[in-house]
Amino acid sequence: MSPLSRRAFAAAVLTTPLLAGCGGSGSGSSGAPDSPPRSAPSSGKSAAPRGRSVPVRLRIPDIGVDTPVMRLGLAADGTVEVPPITAHDRAGWYEHSPTPGQTGPSVILGHVRVGSYGDGVFRRLGELRRGDRIEARLENGGTAAFAVTEVRTVAKADFPAGAVYGNVDRPELRLITCGGPRSGAGYRDNVIVFAASTDAAGDTGER
């Protein structure tokens, strides 16, 4: 990740509510952390990091996800963007996070519902289990592979920003959507999938 991207990523973690795509007629916000986030824990052997290459497609065979991936930045109010509400729903990669396969948490968001269009691309995210495979196809033609390590459903008011966006010493992935009961135009909770790289080796350095 470039120095500029690192600064933007850190600023988003420390100073903004971090939005997670939900669908419905509006998007819900997770709470910003009250203090600088702790680094997320890691364990086991670290996979060799890949060079920087933007994700263009995401596959999660166990829940039938095979979606193009768009780029997401920061909205005008400083919150993380979410994919647009459209009939052809897509996941979105937060462009100030590492790309999949780089050291650190790569963050991808998606809707559980897309308004009147129905179910969103991440509608079954909460069904994932430890060990399930996730594949991110990259712009350079490579594929970064991950295995689910944990699935959490948390109240948006208690969004674990440090664990989701904090530094880790290996390539990891975070998938985020909404869940739980409806609350007004959105949902009360976030569903967060944590995954770690299963790549035995990768090329190093940034592109």
Quick one: overall form? globular
User: Going by CATH, what is the homologous superfamily?
Assistant: Sortase
How does the major sheet shape up? 8 strands, mixed, barrel
Structural class: mainly beta
| β-strand amount | 25-35%
- CATH domain class: Mainly Beta
Mean pLDDT, as a whole number?
80
Helix content: under 10%
Question: Span between N and C termini?
Answer: 9 Å
- Helix count? 2
Rg value: 15 Å
Sketch the topology as an H/E string, one letter per element.
HEEEEEEHEE
Number of domains: 1
Low-confidence stretches: 1-7, 10-21, 24-44, 201-207
Got a strand count? 8
Q: Supply the CATH architecture.
A: Beta Barrel
Plain-language structure description:
The chain has 207 residues and is mainly β. It has a single domain, classed as Beta Barrel (Sortase, Chain: A). It contains two helices and eight strands. An eight-stranded mixed beta barrel has the order 1-2-3-4-7-8-6-5. The radius of gyration is 15 Å and the shape is globular. The N terminus and C terminus are likely disordered.
